[in-house]
Here is the input.
Amino acid sequence: MKFTLGFSPCPNDTFIFDALVNKKIDTKGLEFDVVLEDVQTLNQWALQDKLDFSKISYGVLPLVLDNYFLLNSGGALGKGVGPLLITKQGTFDSRLTTSDFSVAIPGKNTTAHLLFSLACPNVKNKQFMVFHEIEDAVLSGNVDAGVIIHENRFTYQDKGLQKIVDLGEYWEQQLQVPIPLGGIVANKKIDTEISSKVDGLIKKSLEYAFANYPLITDYVKQHSQEMSEAVMKQHIDLYVNNYSIGLGDDGRKAVLKLLEVYGQLHGIAKINQSAIFIA
Here is the structure.
């Protein structure tokens, strides 16, 4: 049986899925047509019910629950892993709460946008763009500040940028749960027994990767967008952890809290929380 599977080319995702998609583990007769796209594209595809299995931002999860279950394995949650709000060094002032303050955000339906909205609810002048364009937008003055994710967390200071707010830290202080960044979802049109099997295969794929770490495989390097190996390892160390192997009770609690916050920010009295998780 063959299914479509989407995830990003970032080192944390390729690290997790390498053994699965390249059959370094027994895939139990399952095969995958793999598509590697930025997470905002994957979010849009999830809204269109396009793929069988996909990485998504947790920020879009409330909008796709009719069509997708959340899997236990393969996601990114944790502490100290959230997006950062940055600006040019020496330029930040008190305009963060004013209507003319402009901020670049990596996608409308991303977790980064949700966390920014929680921390800075008065900022309405937002420009949505692909994550790797945000630093240049700030440096050029096209926007006053930007929300950065992924490898930009490790390089922004080298480009003359400075942190205003650690949005993940704000989340942790306010809500006392890990930060849900991205998860893996399974289309509800697929038999739940198959989806559960895929969930288990993702776990085994990650366990295989951890067993061979700190080896960085050719598959990870191939899609790493010319990162140094040191930055790849920083990326993996930050975003891949025990929550990636399985959500557990704390991870599920964090996901439910995110759905609650989403509902509060969007004036939704109650989001249907039934049939969220695969098992």
